[in-house]
């Protein structure tokens, strides 16, 4: 039986014929991810007349009557100074991450210009039996003041809680602080008057 086979190596005769036909090449479609431009990110940023800006590569420095701020931007976005004096934040690459950073860094840039020219403020107020807090959320925080407590706000930054039950005073103060406790790097947030917040060293400090 084996003598009837044709071997490629030995050249023997065979009754079995094997034909080699080329296999067609299969082309798989390439799916491309389309990243839409952020509606917020594409808006131009107006530079106030009392603010000077310095743009060097990926670093922006702004100086106004209230102070100076600077920020280093990631490689996914870039800043451009327009002929009309406005600033535009643009995507440097067409990726999903760049699309996410586009609107974020446009907002952060606008906050820098507003901060050094006009500044920001957080208002605390008492309306009837409610304490109204503006803590940076999209809506004010309203807290019901217990009947046995009195709340007084001084200079928009100090909340004085008084009453005859020390436990209730402590619980209500803790509930206020819980909305925005002090963050560990700059200490911003709601904290007690005698509270000491231990700050952590940021990345910039570690490089020194």
Residue fraction in strands: 15-25%
Uncertain segments are 1-14
Tally of separate helices: 3
Largest sheet report: 3 strands, antiparallel
Biggest β-sheet: strands ordered side by side in the sheet:
1-2-3
What string, H for helix and E for strand, traces the elements in order? EEEEEHEEEEEHH
SSE topology sketch:
Layout: E1 52-56, E2 59-64, E3 67-72, E4 77-81, E5 87-91, H1 96-117, E6 124-127, E7 130-133, E8 141-144, E9 149-154, E10 158-163, H2 166-179, H3 203-207
Antiparallel strand pairs: 1-2, 2-3, 4-5, 6-7, 7-8, 9-10
Could you explain how this protein is built, in words?
- Belongs to the universal ribosomal protein uL6 family.
- InterPro entries: Ribosomal_uL6-like, Ribosomal_uL6-like_a/b-dom_sf, Ribosomal_uL6_a/b-dom, Ribosomal_uL6_bac-type, Ribosomal_uL6_CS.
- One of its GO terms (molecular function) is structural constituent of ribosome.
- It comes from Linum tenue.
- One of its GO terms (cellular component) is ribonucleoprotein complex.
- Helix content is 20%, strand content 25%.
- The chain has 208 residues and is of the alpha+beta class.
- The protein has helices at residues 96-117, 166-179, 203-207; strands at 52-56, 59-64, 67-72, 77-81, 87-91, 124-127, 130-133, 141-144, 149-154, 158-163.
- Strand 9 and strand 10 (158-163) form a beta hairpin.
- The termini are far apart.
- It is elongated and about 85 Å long.
- The strands form 4 sheets. The chain has a 3-stranded antiparallel sheet with strand order 1-2-3, covered by helices on one side. Strands 6-7-8 form a 3-stranded antiparallel sheet, with no helix packed on it.
């Amino acid at each position: 039986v084996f003598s009837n086979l044709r071997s490629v190596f030995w050249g023997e005769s065979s009754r079995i014929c094997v034909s080699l036909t080329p296999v067609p090449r299969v082309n798989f479609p390439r799916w491309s991810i389309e990243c839409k431009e952020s509606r917020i990110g594409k808006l131009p940023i107006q530079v106030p007349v009392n603010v000077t800006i310095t743009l060097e590569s990926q670093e922006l420095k702004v100086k106004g009557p209230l102070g100076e701020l600077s920020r280093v931007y990631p490689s996914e976005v870039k800043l451009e100074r327009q002929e009309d004096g406005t600033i535009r934040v643009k995507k440097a690459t067409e990726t999903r991450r760049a699309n996410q950073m586009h609107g974020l860094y446009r907002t952060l840039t606008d906050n820098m210009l507003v901060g050094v020219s006009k500044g920001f403020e957080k208002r605390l107020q008492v309306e009837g039996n409610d304490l109204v807090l503006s803590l940076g959320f999209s809506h004010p925080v309203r807290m019901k003041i217990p009947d046995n407590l009195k709340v007084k706000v001084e200079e928009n930054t100090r909340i004085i809680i008084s009453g005859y039950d020390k436990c209730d005073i402590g619980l209500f103060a803790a509930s206020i602080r819980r909305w925005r406790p002090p963050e560990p790097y700059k200490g911003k947030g709601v904290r007690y008057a005698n509270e000491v917040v231990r700050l952590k060293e940021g990345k910039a400090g570690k490089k020194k």
